[in-house]
């Protein structure tokens, strides 16, 4: 039910519908409406969108007269229309009149939304109202709250889910449109505008609530079809001002990962960043900064390809508009690229980036500046991954001393340098020194960041590995399981930090004789690495090579010699490529392969014989 007033608006409060109720004491009246005020007259039932995609496919099939049982494009279209019956009926009616496939319809929907709906066949008045009433509704919203109209236009540049007050409040006042500053000056103003939008059925408060879990209030969401209308109708001519405003709102929320529970904010920001990346103009003054912050966001969520792309675009921005003060930004981006390449196992590329960054940072900022120290820290860790442990230790000791002097002993950067130095000490067998560094880092991180922060959990995980090195399996298991529970809660599946905790637990299970559990964990980790990294990177990624070593040992213990040799050979090739033929790990693996092959020859086992035995057992 909806009534239009004389000005063309939707008169949600212009009349009292109770005058039309029959004067009787029995029966029931059912009213369908998008007006929240009418819903308060009796018992309100919220009609949700279709939750089962099969129901959406049935509507598409019925309206189009087609069979979509084996059409993946139909499933894609149903997902795009997100369970809204009228949108599904509109799409089906269009497909009934043309030879267009569902996949082609999706492409048109994304590129030419407005033209597509103008050309759709006429539906019943109620169905057609899905699109025609939105413009009428907008006029009425404008009469009530002009800021709400501007908010709808701005929303087109964000994701359609989870728009919250603090997100729009972020950023410098002088860089905001005046209306947005007024809207976010206090939460009452924001809530007033959102209430008008929600009363007219264009958005709704999220059912879940982040309050108490992360900084920020409960968000609002709009249906994907309504969002498409804001994109293609309200922003028929794209607005560079609104696009820039949205980017600044998101980028100003991306911190360095040093704030308590930062990961929860990152999860909320990620869909908005995805929506915005294609709109960033490299000619805008602060685009390099936005790209850099988006890169940090993507890397924090394990999306390395997007993170690298953002940094490369940031460099191009600075190269297009060179200025003397860009030196600092360039060195920072080079150092971040070094971090990214190190994370991916691209050690030569990482080394080159760090050295370029260090040269520029020392010249522009001096030896004791935090940017220089951060680069020294990264370069030291890169040396470690390349087997240059003595050089790595020297660099990281320099980073700890420099950070303590420049930023103090409890600064997150100092604690990170201590954590990394502890790793080097452990790799060199200096276990007491490693313990001291880890305990200092853990105490500082728990105090500054909290016990559930991923950085804190990383140190917990490393202490578990230290117990493992000392043969203290139960203590190791307690620490690594604590870290794993925390990572699963904060970072989700597939994150590198979580995979490292699983690796340590796999080794613990192996040492405790729980070979089946250990093997399952190793295979799980390798599957995640295959998803995260390019195949050529996985082949030389040191953490993956160590997993292959562990898996080879497990195959050997279970009598699966060929599988063990295969895993050892993959690890052997990787260590040879990364560290060369003199590396201790490479030499050790060569010995294990030779030992296994000799044992197989003694027992006259060949691949063909083994396969024949397997066939015999199957028969």
TrEMBL record:
Annotated TPR repeats reside at 331-364, 415-448
Q: Which InterPro entries match?
A: NLR-like, TPR-like_helical_dom_sf, TPR_rpt
Q: Give the source's domain of life in one word.
A: Eukaryota
The UniProt keywords, alphabetically, are:
TPR repeat
Could you tell me which PROSITE patterns the record lists for this protein? TPR
Q: Which PANTHER family match?
A: AAA+ ATPASE DOMAIN-CONTAINING PROTEIN-RELATED (PTHR46082:SF6), ATP/GTP-BINDING PROTEIN-RELATED (PTHR46082)
- Designated name of the protein: Nephrocystin-3-like protein 2
**Native source organism of the sequence:** Colletotrichum kahawae
The organism's lineage? Eukaryota, Fungi, Dikarya, Ascomycota, Pezizomycotina
């Amino acid at each position: 039910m909806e009534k239009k007033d004389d000005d063309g608006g939707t008169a949600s409060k212009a009349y009292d519908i109770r005058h039309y109720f029959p004067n009787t004491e029995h029966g029931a009246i059912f009213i369908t409406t998008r007006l929240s005020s009418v819903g308060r007259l009796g018992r309100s039932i919220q009609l949700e969108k279709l939750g089962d995609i099969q129901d959406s496919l049935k509507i598409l099939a019925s309206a189009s007269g087609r069979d979509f049982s084996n059409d993946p494009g139909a499933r894609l279209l149903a997902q795009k229309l997100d369970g809204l019956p009228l949108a599904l009926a509109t799409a089906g009616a269009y497909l009934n009149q043309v030879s267009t496939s569902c996949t082609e319809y999706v492409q048109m929907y994304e590129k030419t939304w407005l033209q597509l709906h103008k050309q759709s066949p006429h539906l019943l008045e109620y169905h057609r109202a899905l699109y025609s009433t939105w413009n009428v509704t907008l006029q009425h919203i404008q009469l009530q709250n002009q800021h709400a109209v501007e908010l709808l236009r701005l929303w087109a540049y964000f994701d359609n889910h989870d728009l919250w007050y603090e997100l729009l409040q972020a950023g410098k006042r002088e860089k905001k449109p005046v209306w947005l500053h007024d809207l976010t000056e206090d939460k009452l103003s924001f809530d007033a505008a959102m209430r008008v939008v929600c009363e007219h059925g264009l958005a709704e408060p999220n059912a879940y609530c982040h309050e108490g879990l992360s900084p920020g209030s409960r968000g609002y969401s709009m249906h994907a079809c309504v969002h498409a209308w804001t994109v293609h109708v309200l922003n028929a001519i794209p607005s560079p001002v609104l696009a820039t405003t949205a980017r600044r709102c998101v980028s100003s929320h991306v911190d360095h990962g040093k704030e308590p529970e930062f990961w929860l904010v990152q999860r909320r920001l990620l869909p908005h960043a995805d929506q915005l990346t294609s709109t960033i103009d490299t000619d805008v003054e602060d685009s390099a900064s936005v790209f850099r912050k988006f890169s940090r966001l993507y890397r924090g969520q394990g999306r390395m390809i997007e993170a690298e792309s953002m940094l490369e675009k940031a460099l191009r921005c600075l190269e297009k508009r060179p200025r003397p003060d860009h030196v600092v930004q360039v060195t920072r981006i080079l150092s971040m690229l070094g971090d990214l390449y190190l994370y991916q196992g691209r050690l030569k590329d990482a080394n080159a980036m760090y050295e370029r960054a260090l040269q520029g940072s020392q010249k522009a900022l001096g030896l004791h500046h935090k940017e220089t120290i951060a680069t020294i820290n990264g370069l030291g860790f890169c040396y470690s991954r390349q087997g240059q442990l003595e050089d790595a230790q020297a660099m990281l000791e320099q980073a700890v001393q420099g950070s303590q002097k420049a930023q103090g002993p409890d600064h997150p950067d100092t604690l990170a340098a201590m954590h990394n130095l502890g790793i080097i000490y452990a790799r060199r067998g200096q276990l007491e020194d490693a313990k001291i560094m880890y305990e200092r880092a853990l105490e500082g991180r728990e105090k500054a960041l909290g016990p559930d922060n991923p950085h804190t959990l990383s140190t917990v995980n490393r202490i578990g590995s230290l117990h493992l090195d000392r043969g203290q399996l139960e203590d190791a298991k307690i620490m690594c399981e604590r870290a794993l529970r925390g990572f699963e809660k904060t970072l989700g599946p597939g994150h590198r930090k979580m995979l490292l905790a699983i690796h340590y637990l796999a080794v613990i299970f192996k040492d405790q004789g729980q070979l089946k559990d250990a093997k399952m964990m190793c295979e799980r980790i390798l599957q995640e690495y295959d998803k995260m990294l390019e195949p050529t990177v996985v082949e030389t990624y040191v953490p993956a090579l160590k997993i292959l070593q562990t898996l080879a040992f497990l195959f050997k213990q279970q009598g699966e010699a060929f599988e063990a040799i295969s895993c050892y050979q993959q690890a052997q090739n990787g260590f040879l490529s990364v560290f060369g033929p003199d590396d201790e790990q490479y030499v050790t693996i060569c010995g294990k392969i030779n030992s296994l092959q000799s044992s197989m020859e003694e027992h006259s086992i060949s691949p063909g014989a083994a396969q024949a035995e397997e066939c015999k057992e199957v028969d």
